[in-house]
Each structure stands twice: as C-alpha cells, then as structure tokens.
Amino acid sequence: MGEAGIPTTKVVCGIIERDGYVLLTQRSKNMSQPLLWEFPGGKLEAGESEAECLEREILEELNISILPLQRLTPVLHKYPDFIIELIPYTCSYQGGTVCLMEHTSYEWVPLQDLKDYEWCPADVPVVEEYLQLGG
Ligand SMILES: Nc1nc2c([nH]c(=O)n2[C@H]2C[C@H](O)[C@@H](COP(=O)(O)OP(=O)(O)OP(=O)(O)O)O2)c(=O)[nH]1
C-alpha cells in the first residue's frame, strides 16, 4: 500500500534494442494513458519474476521474444487513482515479427529521437536515465 491506502502496482517494461533502435509502443485510445508512448510491458503477476513477466507480456502483446539484460532504476509515479512502480529493463530483441494485439502503433526509434515522443509520465525519468547511460 502506498499513500492514503492507494495500492502500488508493479509494472515491468522493456527497452528493447535492435541494431541501434529501440522499440516504442503507443497505447490505444481505449487503454489507460490513451495514445501516450511507452516501453512495452505490463503488470507483474503473483509468483512470477520480473524477467518472466517481461518475456510473457511482450510475447502476448507483440508476438516477439526478448532477453532481459539490465535492470534500470525503478520509478515511483503517482497517477490520480493509483501509484505505479515502473521497473525498466534493457532487453535484446531475439526474434519474431511485431504483431500488435493491444497497441495502436509501434516504432523502432533511434536513440536521438527518444525525447521527441509524448511519453506516459512515469516513463520520462526512464528515458533520461537510459540516454545518460548512452543507450
Ligand atoms: N506497459 C507499460 N505500462 C506503463 C508504462 N508507463 C506507464 O505509466 N504505464 C502504466 C499504464 C498502465 O496504467 C499500467 C500498465 O498496465 P497495462 O499495460 O497492463 O495496462 P492496462 O491497460 O491493462 O491497465 P488497466 O487500464 O487495465 O489498468 O502502467 C510503460 O512504459 N509500459
């Protein structure tokens, strides 16, 4: 539980790298955080590790396989009705063709363009840390 009894939701997201590009997904207009950009991932389920969660969510949502590499700094962000702990991992792309199951669009983006997207608010510090690390 977080502040004033608001639960904290753990969400694991992947910064999926392939040949100098990173995979971004845009949330659909009927999802929470509509039309904002994010690193794909999802809510941690009971009994699974963060890496298992990431591999499962990305296969379910995008139909590609990935390998989690490095855990970056988790971000605690307060949305109006819940608190999210966003746990980012850099990942390598392993295989498969992107097929969108939930998102409205995706892009493979070069590092220098990451700042140009309208991000979910919780992702802003993640993008900053990732760029500081040199991608
Ligand atoms: N997957 C992902 N979610 C993010 C990121 N940044 C961020 O604020 N979020 C938020 C959006 C959602 O509220 C939540 C992730 O849950 P989800 O992807 O399972 O979304 P959902 O639509 O099923 O959630 P909900 O509306 O049912 O609550 O975390 C991010 O980079 N990746």
Automatic annotation (TrEMBL):
<dbReference type="InterPro" id="IPR020476">
    <property type="entry name" value="Nudix_hydrolase"/>
</dbReference>
<dbReference type="GO" id="GO:0016787">
    <property type="term" value="F:hydrolase activity"/>
</dbReference>
<comment type="similarity">
    <text>Belongs to the Nudix hydrolase family.</text>
</comment>
<keyword id="KW-0235">DNA replication</keyword>
<keyword id="KW-0460">Magnesium</keyword>
<keyword id="KW-0515">Mutator protein</keyword>
<keyword id="KW-0227">DNA damage</keyword>
<keyword id="KW-0234">DNA repair</keyword>
<dbReference type="InterPro" id="IPR029119">
    <property type="entry name" value="MutY_C"/>
</dbReference>
<feature type="domain" description="Nudix hydrolase">
    <location>
        <begin position="7"/>
        <end position="133"/>
    </location>
</feature>
<dbReference type="InterPro" id="IPR015797">
    <property type="entry name" value="NUDIX_hydrolase-like_dom_sf"/>
</dbReference>
<dbReference type="Pfam" id="PF14815">
    <property type="entry name" value="NUDIX_4"/>
</dbReference>
<dbReference type="InterPro" id="IPR000086">
    <property type="entry name" value="NUDIX_hydrolase_dom"/>
</dbReference>
<keyword id="KW-0479">Metal-binding</keyword>
<protein>
    <recommendedName>
        <fullName>8-oxo-dGTP diphosphatase</fullName>
        <ecNumber>3.6.1.55</ecNumber>
    </recommendedName>
</protein>
<keyword id="KW-0378">Hydrolase</keyword>
<dbReference type="InterPro" id="IPR020084">
    <property type="entry name" value="NUDIX_hydrolase_CS"/>
</dbReference>
<dbReference type="InterPro" id="IPR047127">
    <property type="entry name" value="MutT-like"/>
</dbReference>
